[in-house]
Amino acid sequence: MSLNKRWCLSIMCALLVPALAWAADTPSREPQAFLPENVFEFQTVVEGRQVAHGFVIQNKGDADLLIHDIKSG
Question: What single DSSP character describes residue 71?
Answer without folding.
Answer: -
